[in-house]
Write a structure and sequence with these properties.
Layout lengths: L3 E7 L2 E8 L2 E5 L6 H11 L4 E2 L7 H9 L17 H11 L7 E2 H7 L6 H9 L12 E2 L12 H11 L13
Parallel strand pairs: 1-4, 5-6
Antiparallel strand pairs: 1-2, 2-3
Helix pairs in contact: 4-5
């Protein structure tokens, strides 16, 4: 299966997305440059071809998302190497509405494994499609931020963005 990728410039930085006709298989978190985004490809796969048309309007939707627009991501995903548990966790995570958060315990209950909070966190750490599978919307049961591959500052910025707080005087993450 031939994997293709494209690089998208957003307000938060450069994002690389990739996949095949089976679906989207990875999305990087924003990087400071196009070169850094392309270097992130090494985290996902080697030997891809650049082809933006394969992804339809996804690049535009990502740009709009990072501009603060409410955007949906109903895209078909290809998690061929993921475990059944990870797939169920990621499906539950995709159901968290824009601008809202849920706890790891909530996700565990949603998948019928209420004692699997740590395992849910492990699945989140292996999420290859952040934003599309919005793991940034999952927080600790007490509401505190924890566990995000892009760091807690980026997690806060994404939550502020979705809450409409980016650029407002009370937001600690003004650009």
């Amino acid at each position: 299966m031939e994997v293709k990728h494209t690089v998208v410039s957003t307000r938060f930085g450069w994002v690389v997305i990739g996949g095949s006709e089976r679906g989207l298989s990875f999305v990087s978190l924003p990087r400071v440059s196009r070169e850094a985004a392309l270097a992130a490809l090494e985290d996902f796969v080697k030997g891809t071809l650049e082809a933006s048309a394969v992804f339809g309007d996804l690049p535009l939707r990502l740009q709009r998302y990072f501009d603060g627009a409410l955007v949906t991501f109903p895209d078909k995903l290809d998690f061929g190497e993921a475990t059944a548990f990870e797939r169920v966790v990621w499906d539950a995570t995709r159901s968290i509405p824009y601008g809202e958060v849920r706890s790891y315990a909530w996700v565990a209950r949603q998948i019928g494994k209420p004692r699997a909070c740590r395992a849910v966190g492990g699945a989140m750490a292996r999420n290859r499609c952040p934003i599309i599978v919005p793991c940034h919307r999952v927080v600790a049961s007490n509401g505190s931020l924890c566990g995000f591959g892009g760091g807690l500052e980026l997690k806060r910025r994404l939550l502020d963005l979705e809450a409409g707080q980016m650029g407002k005087p009370n937001s600690p993450f003004l650009q």
